[in-house]
Design brief:
This protein is an alpha+beta fold. Helices cover 38% and strands 13% of the residues. It is built from 8 helices and 7 strands. The strands form 3 sheets. The protein has a 3-stranded antiparallel sheet, with helices on one face. Helix 2 packs across helix 7 and helix 2 packs antiparallel against helix 8. The longest helix has 18 residues. It is globular, with a radius of gyration of 21 Å.
């Protein structure tokens, strides 16, 4: 597990003893605040109900998946700064983890992460990826190719919709840019939640679905 450098408060010997003690105490308090465990939501925003997902799915445009020509992850700028020194990845790690501590640069220095996709728990943030529920390439092929860069940036860093989740890195990599007709979380207990999240994001951003994708989602939601 990677850790952030430890910074020791400086106390100058020539200062009066009281001033030195106050300086050391203030510096220590600052470091303590920066490394305090963050209360964990331990999940993305709660997705829409299954019944709402079925309604939203029926409203999505069904069309043949577009071309990936011109696609690049660089056209979906991420991870952007969210607050202070924290970018989107670091924000999701703190949100989705348990007892997460961070250094002065906001990088996680401790904690644990439960991956809803496969049921694994990790104690090193390097073992965790932040997955886009609707993959960037999938979004590109279903409408985002016509967006502005600013719109694609908002999509790639969306913390308001259930679009981002911390999961096992190699499971996320096995998903790649696949839609639900091609890939579903290996942990079946999360299937309904995943589909509700997926449909909510597609509906909000007015992205299309192809026929196989819609059929797979319909089938999955029918058991929710």
């Amino acid at each position: 597990m990677r850790t952030a450098p430890h910074h020791t408060p400086s106390v100058y010997a020539r200062r009066p003893r009281r001033a030195a003690l106050l300086t050391a105490a203030a510096a220590t308090a600052t470091l303590t605040l920066l490394a305090t465990a963050t209360p964990s939501q331990a999940s993305p925003p709660t997705p829409i109900a299954a019944s709402t997902a079925r309604t939203y799915l029926s409203a999505l445009t069904v069309k043949t998946e577009g071309s990936s020509d011109g696609y690049s992850r660089d056209k979906f700028p991420h991870w952007i700064t969210q607050s202070g020194t924290c970018d989107t990845r670091e924000t999701v790690l703190k949100r989705d983890g348990k007892s997460v501590t961070t250094g002065t640069d906001c990088a996680a220095t401790g904690g644990s992460w439960y991956s809803e996709y496969d049921g694994a728990t990790w104690t090193a943030s390097s073992d965790v990826d932040i997955d886009h529920i609707v993959p960037l390439s999938e979004a590109w092929k279903s409408g985002a190719s016509g967006w502005t860069t600013a719109q694609r940036q908002s999509f790639a860093n969306d913390l308001t919709r259930p679009q981002l989740i911390a999961v096992t890195d190699n499971v996320n990599q096995s998903k790649g840019d696949k839609d639900p007709a091609e890939w579903m979380p290996p942990r079946a207990a999360y299937a309904c939640t995943y589909l509700r999240m997926y449909v909510q994001v597609k509906h909000y951003y007015d992205l299309s679905v192809d026929s196989a994708e819609k059929s797979a989602i319909q089938s999955g939601l029918s058991g929710c």
